[in-house]
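seq:
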Amino acid sequence: MPTEPQRSRAVFSTEDFGLMKEAVANYVRQIADDPRSAKFSNLYHRLGRLG
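struct:
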């Protein structure tokens, strides 16, 4: 009898996304003059769509 694979469980809770967004926002302010800040800013906005 073939069985269906178990559904994977979520790694992060919805509360975690808010915490990660806050941490990324703080980091973006710290590295504002670094060219990588744009990538972290994009990550911040993507996290906002999730949580």
